[in-house]
Amino acid sequence: MPPIPSEFFRRQDSADDHIFYIMPRRVVHIDDDAIAALTSLYAELLPSGGIFLDLMSSWRSHYPPEFKPARVVGLGMNSDEMADNPQLTKHIVHNLNQNPTLPYEDALFDAVTCAVSVQYLTQPIKVFAEVYRVLKPGAVFIVSFSNRCFPTKAVAVWRSTNDQDHIALVGRYFRDSADWVDLTAQQTNPADGYPRHADPLYVVWARKPNTI
């Protein structure tokens, strides 16, 4: 399969992301029902007592409140937001669109999560490959998103496609970046009791193999 064309990752606002994120935005980007669904899935997939990386972090991580991880590291764009996140034990400001290399050693994390932010990555294949590098064997990378975004900062391919296409696109990021296993996609479904008025929630995840 040919690589995704670079023009797919152009944005309406190509200015330095630090300018856009310089002021803290202490808001959540999905509603309470979607947050509850994401928290419930985290409870199923995340290991207890592990070291987590909250990628593209903000002031809330949506991990289950009863979780007691050994450490949660936040990597995001606004230090004030991450300082207000009660689930982070440490945080760092790092612009993945300028430098997709993660500032962490190999095989450090038991899980990596990225909540409602993947649409802003201009070099997603490199970032997903870096997540693969810093995960321990058998560890999971969980990517969630809804139908909301800052349109001027979302990449062109995201703005021009629909929710089902976004699921396929994130799956492509996994497949093109490394030898992930157990690639899975899940979406909320009103037929399963999810409120019809709630924000949709889509989650795609995969694991680094136990032996590589």
Instruction: Provide the spatial order of strands within the biggest beta sheet.
Output: 3-2-1-4-5-7-6
Count of extended strands: 7
Number of helices: 6
Radius of gyration: 16 Å
**Secondary-structure-derived class:** alpha/beta
CATH superfamily: Vaccinia Virus protein VP39
Shape: globular
CATH architecture: 3-Layer(aba) Sandwich
SSE string, helices as H and strands as E: HHEEHEEHEHHEE
Number of structural domains: 1
Keywords:
single chain, 212 residues, alpha/beta, Rossmann fold, 6 helices, globular
Structural account:
The structure is a single chain. The chain has 212 residues and is of the alpha/beta class. The protein has a single domain (6-207), classed as Rossmann fold (3-Layer(aba) Sandwich). 25% of the residues lie in helices and 23% in strands. It has helices spanning 17-20, 32-45, 79-83, 124-134, 156-159, 163-177; strands at residues 51-57, 71-76, 90-93, 109-115, 135-145, 181-187, 202-207. It has a 7-stranded mixed beta sheet with strand order 3-2-1-4-5-7-6, with helices on both faces. α3 (79-83) links the parallel β2 and β3 (90-93). The protein is globular.
In short:
The chain is α/β, with parallel strands linked by helices. The protein is 25% helix and 23% strand.
Task: Annotate the secondary structure layout.
Elements (H helix, E strand, L loop, with lengths): L16 H4 L11 H14 L5 E7 L13 E6 L2 H5 L6 E4 L15 E7 L8 H11 E11 L10 H4 L3 H15 L3 E7 L14 E6 L5
Parallel strand pairs: 1-2, 1-4, 2-3, 4-5
Antiparallel strand pairs: 5-7, 6-7
